[in-house]
Amino acid sequence: METETLVTPETTKSEGKLVENVVEDTIVEAEEPNFTLAINFPHFPGKTYVMANASELVQEVKQWLIDSPETCIYTCFSLSLNGRRLDDYKELQEEGITQDCDLDLVEEPYTEREARIHVIHVRDLLAGPFKQVTSSVGINPGLSFFTAVNGINVKTNNEQSEENGKSKEDNEIPKTPFTDYDFTAPSLSKFIPDNFGRHKIKCLESLYLSGWNPVPFERRRRGDLLYLIISTIEGETLHITAGVDGFFVNRSTIKNFDFNPRTELQLYHAHSLITLLQGLSPSFRTNFKALQDFIGAHHPFETIPVNTCFPAYPWIARQSKHNYDMGRATEIYLNFGMDAVDSLRDWNDEFQSQREYPRVELRDRVLRERLINKIQADFTESAVKGAIAVINGNVIPFNPRDPEDEHMYVYNNIFFSKAFDTRGTFSKLGGNDAAHVATGKDMEGIRIVNSIDIEGLYTLGCVVIDYKGVRIVAQTIVPGIFRRQDDSSIVYGYFDNGRDDPKLCANPEFHEVMGKAAKALHLAEHSVCDTKGTTVKLYTSLETKGLMGDDGRRYLFDLYRLNPVDIEFIEKECEPKECEPKECEPKECEPKECEPKECEPKECEPKECEPKESEPKESEPKECEPKECEPKECEPKECEPKEESDIPAYPHKLVLLRPELIESYWDYRFRLWLQDKANKEKETGDSTKETVISENDEFNLTFNPDAFTNFNMPIGEEHTTRKVADEENVRNASKYLRDTVIRMLIIEFTTLAVSPVDGISLTTTMHRRGINMRYLGMIANIINESQDHKLDHIKHLVIHEMIIRASKRILRNLLRQITNTYIPYCISHFLNCLLGTDFNMNPQPLVPDSVTNTKNLKYDYLTLTPSSLCQQILETVLIRYRYRLPEDFINVHVRKLPMLREICLRVGVQIAVQGYHFLKKKSKKRVTTFIPDDILNLIPTIKQATPKCAFAEETFETGKLSIAQGSRDLGVDLMLQSLALHEQSYGFLHPATARCYSALAMCFYHNEDLEIAIDFQKKAVIVLERTCGVDSVDAIHGYLHLGLFENAIGHTELGLKYMRHAMYYWEIIFGDLHPDGATADHNVGIMLQNMKDYEGSIKFFERAKNTNEFVFGKNNVVTGESYHLLAKALAYAEDYKAALIAEKSAYHIFHAVFGAEHPRTRETELLLRDLTSNAVHNAKMALQQKQDKPQRKPTPSKTVPIQLRTGHHLNVTASIKKKKLTKK
């Protein structure tokens, strides 16, 4: 199990001083007093107390009261201090609120909007903790299983543990959460916990808007706002009026409108609808209290809505029963009003206005980032719904006469277009393939520009949505863009609309602003000219454009070429290869072919590669230069390029370097420059510090994004020299990626410094290091040549990732052709051809029952077969990743559950929860593994430029650095301050906030503050489930950590529940033979020992031993530790013979590695003697028993107490409180 640890960067003394200064400033600015507020209520509950921070807004306190179960009946109110109403959007300290202040809750008159909000609030409360969101794009958004996994409280858990201990004394096998654990492939029918459900306590039969709406004009003047119809459990139908002063029961019926109140009722009017219903219906009063108690049993983070980021949708869902509810159809009116004006927003103005918000003071920066994050989340939600409407044909294009691929749409003030090369912009780069990639690169460029946050430079709000095989780009609308008849708004870059003459310009003011951005992005200023001889200087590529909007703002768009090209890849893979010897010979000598076989054995041998060594990284490219490889490697390998010469050219030429790679290479070159300066100063005897300060500006490494793109360059020696220098910089960066970065990643994989578990974590790992996914094939080839078992799980992941990406591309092409009714039939047939061939070798495609004539159908999925699909995948992997898959790999070696999960997540498929049969089994219900009814939904997948809270991130990193340098108290204070900033900027339910919770939990755990650590870890787990996915790698790691924390505090059974839940999902996303899986098995085994379930612990130790033996080899220390733990478990189970064999293996390993005098060897030798004496004693007792004949059971001697160490695994015994979690 890989645990989150605090990274210890190597810093210089000057950096340490800088950190201290930042720390002091942060504490002064961020520290705010906390206090408890007393709030008085006009009715129930009379008085309550709220924990608040001086920097919180009054509105945040009001929202807490609305969400609290005790005070949820109030929604339309204000807070006052000594009769003075508080401003909702001011901070508490600005209103003069301190510890001794008592606030009064004052019920305010309703408006129509407030009345609608109150009714929505009541419906949400009655729906229970897991409300079905009718406006969501998929099933079960933001799901969390935490309460279902938790099950029982701590007290019951402790009592059960004591009972288990007593039962062991009676020679009974104790029952633990792992008692019935299945070590075979898990069944997807258990994906959703058995005790999880949306079962709610029924309080009302129905609640919906009355048919008497809208309110007549004469009644509006009397204060009527809405009319409701409510049916109680007692069977009574109530017609209720929502008025300015509250809710009252009127005398209307379905046939007769009578606005007069029913005064004969004991309670006919109340300010809150809940209070009114509690007085009218005894069943409502009883059940509503029970419902609130049920909601209160859940963690608060499970019930609050996810509204600051896009929620996670599970790929497996349980189809809930669809009940009749007239209120669902009226939710749109309740949310947006009669004319839906509330839903119409000027997205662009909101984006840009919030970016212009003051950023000098800390509170202003926090508020600014909170607003930006919220508008991005709202825009993403609206864009996704709009994209679905566009693709489903529910929006009319504003250019209907153009071809369908060229259609553009405006919906909800958002501009939508399709990612096709409709104007021939990418005709020379790869057509639609290049256009598809360009949208993702454009999104990446927007994220980069937003992250540097240059004042006066603006980008468009943008989201990329993939749905039904079509990629849609959703953008905010620049003011005046549709009213322009000319292109005078383009003031920077090159513009060619295909009608008028091309335009090349560089506005001086725009160029000055771009210069600030270029400095942060390492962009080179370069001269370009057009056919007319006009010469300008640009920082960006020609394709990037600067626009002056009608609002006076400078907008930068078309940012897909913000980074330079990967020239080494283009020259090797993007040009067609011929088989002529003259052209093949030089290609044999390229680093791509020679480096893996020449240099890989030296780099990837475990004895030579240490995880913390960084110096050899800089020298590796020198060892692998082509000139050194040519004489040795080219001649004997002439046959290999001939076999690879038939690989077609890469589909497109829009292959760019990632921004992380540019930043990494710049840092690498800067370190070399500093080292060179230091060496020179040592020779001259001058002060290095003074030189660095005075000559720091001498280092200048910039990258020309137009390099190697055949742009028009002015004539002259100066420009030619500059071009050569720019191209050299770009080529060196490209070589650095291939020769250094990729190889160092392989070393990290070999030393287990990085150990991804699924395709998503593998992608994140590569992208963080600046490696594009097109290099998956190169990584697979290097691993194949290394033949290192420590890389087998990486090889498995890499090859599966290539197959998954190829399958995703093929399935999207199939979905693009069909209508909605064919979607489940297409997806189910595709999955049967890919994963269900062992169940049915020849699955047949199906069509909807309404289709009678299939001869005229020309959908490609109807002709898809397992063999044709396999061939398409092989070809796609070969073309896009330059890797030859074995022909039988898909049918023989593919792990079906991880493959199914990844494809569903990448394409957006939601399937039904049930046990799918992948092997041949007689079944009366189905003839294939998947049927159309298994496909419940298809949801969009998105890419967005998620905003970053720079100050919160910097404070967090500074806190970790302080802890690493030994200043723990200061570091924890900083991390707590960072957490407060994260919660204020991102909200509670956000992945970034979850990382803070998790890091703080580990921090407090190391300091033995276990209660605090568990509280933070619970929050992290829930947030990760709801924002990243219930089976995401981060959520699984969170549950594994939480299980260890609970065990450390004595709640072993509860900890095992968390561990079992995590390990079930681990089996789904990866399976066996992962190094981290062995660590988790060790931890579970030790925890089961604590529960005295020795037989169960032996199974996990045995599996961990097998995994480590396969990964590390039989003579590795890690394997020896596994044998040692297994021997102890067998000794506890009184199987001394097997324990003796296991301990002998451990002793031989430790003796060979450490020698006879090492403490670990001595410990093993001591246990070996005890086990030997026990074995001899038992043998004598058995012999004596045979001779004496009486059936007397001998009393076995007990072994010495076993002290479990934490050499490789995580110690989860009672001594865990004194030790830290270690990372493999």
From TrEMBL:
Positions of region (Disordered): 156-179, 581-645, 1182-1201
Compositionally biased intervals (Basic and acidic residues): 163-173
Clu domain ranges (all copies): 319-570
InterPro entries: CLU-central, CLU_dom, CLU_N, CLU_prot, GSKIP_dom_sf, TPR-like_helical_dom_sf
Keywords: Cytoplasm
UniProt keyword annotation of Nucleotidyltransferase present: no
GO molecular function: mRNA binding
Gene Ontology cellular-component annotations: cytoplasm
GO biological process, one term: intracellular distribution of mitochondria
Keyword Cytoplasm found: yes
Domain of life: Eukaryota
One Pfam family per UniProt: TPR_10
PROSITE patterns given in the database record: CLU
Descriptive protein name: Clustered mitochondria-domain-containing protein
